[in-house]
Amino acid sequence: MLTRLHTTVSLATLVLIGSATALAQPPEAVAPQADTPSAESKYLANVRQVTSGMVKAGEGYFSPDGERIVYQAVPPQYPFYQIYTQPLAGGEPELVSTGRGRTTCAYFTVDGKNILFASSHRDPNMKQTEDEEVAKQEEERRSGQRRRYAWDFDPYTDIYVKDMKSGELTPLTTTQGYDAEGAFSYDGKKIAFCSDRDGDPDLYIMDVDGSNVKQLTNAKGYDGGPFISPNGKWIVFRSDRKQEGFLQIYVISVDGEKEFQLTDNVGVNWAPYWHPTKPYIIWAGADHSQPGRPNYDLWLMKYEETDDAIKPGPIWRITDSPAADVLPVFSPDGKKLMWTSTRTDDHSSQLFIADFTFPEDQPTEEK
Q1: pLDDT in tens, 187-235
Q2: Distances from the Cα of 154 to the Cα of 234, 290, 309, angstroms
Q3: Which member of 154, 212, 329, 366 has the lowest number of beta carbons within 10 Å of its beta carbon?
Q4: Alpha-carbon gap, residue 71 to 97, rounded angstroms
Q5: Helices (H) and strands (E) in the chain, counts
Q6: Can you list the positions of beta strands (E) in 154-233?
Q7: Rounded to whole angstroms, how far apart are CA atoms 110 and 19?
């Protein structure tokens, strides 16, 4: 049994650039005053909510044709996230996962026919696991006090791919420990993922059938949330190796030989995602340099790629809502942005989408 089963990193506080030696530090994230125009209108238009009917929903991704989305959501009457897909234009959610266990991090295959996700449904003590979580949630409702959010590195979590036509579910990992946070390369030949099979969450890469697994990082702390760049050369990820609980954004070459830190601040920077055609990375971040509970907003960085490096560039703040805005992703054509937000009437996390406009070449705020 692994000793690190429940880890609290700084994303635990969620409700839900320069040169290699001078790293990016986003400005302090202060919500605009009532009489101050929001900066969001510069970048986001036609904002709309795309999920409903769930206790909470989030971490959504587009199908390759941009017509469907896949996401995780907590349904009524069940305590853990399950994976769903639905047409972006509207329609009833379709269950992808088995309906039991903890699930996370779904992603379409490049042909759009199958869906990758992580699940702990083979937990041999599933009924006990479910009953314990139900009891904790009932106590929260009774007392009116919420637990501090902590992501569960469930040791029974493995990565699966589901054929959406036949319903066949194929495991891609079977090693003891947490295997999750997987995403395909743009050519569909590789999967980057996070695993704590060696006792510490690190980055790995494998072939699409689960073979040829290679470990890429071995730093102390959590390395996770990997996404392979559009050209297949780099992987962007988050890590708290510098200070426990304070995530920063890094990139590493797919062979694991070159690594660069992109952010360095007193805060949490997580859920980085590549733009499909332009040299930008978007992520969620919050300033933890001051006392109190910080708010999470979306930030955009323009980077410079050379033959052997990724260099951080200017940063723009994309959202400034009093609600939490996290887990941003671009549509396949790069024209829309989808993210998870608590800007709902009941303050539950749900998926939102908007038309995206790029900022000018210079940042609108001083670094």
Answers
A1: 999 999 999 999 999 999 999 999 999 999 999 999 999 999 999 999 9
A2: 28, 32, 35
A3: 366
A4: 11
A5: 1, 28
A6: 158-163, 169-171, 179-184, 190-195, 202-207, 214-215, 223-228
A7: 34
Distance of alpha carbon 337 from alpha carbon 58, whole angstroms: 13
Q: Of 302, 299, 301, 345, whose CA–CA distance to 325 is shortest? A: 299
Radius of gyration of the chain measured on its C-alpha atoms: 19
CATH superfamily of the 6-356 domain? TolB, C-terminal domain (2.120.10.30)
CB 268 within 8 A of CB 223: no
Backbone angles phi, psi at 252, to 5 degrees: -140, 145
Residue 270 contacts residue 296 (beta carbons within 8 Å): no
- Please tell me whether residue 154 adopts helix, strand or coil conformation: coil
In contact, 238 and 250? CB cutoff 8 Å: yes
Length of the chain: 367
Rounded CA-CA distance 102/109 in Å is: 21
* The token pair that represents 269 in the structure block: 């920077």
Q: Report CA torsion sign: 151, 155, 161, 162.
A: negative
Residue 1, pLDDT above cutoff 50: no
| Euclidean distance between CA atoms 250 and 216, whole angstroms | 13
pTM confidence score: 0.90
What amino acid is encoded at 100 in this protein? R
Identify the three-state secondary structure at position 176. coil
Non-local CB neighbours of 189 within 8 Å, separated by 6+ positions: 207, 208
| Tokens matching residue 322 | 């009093």
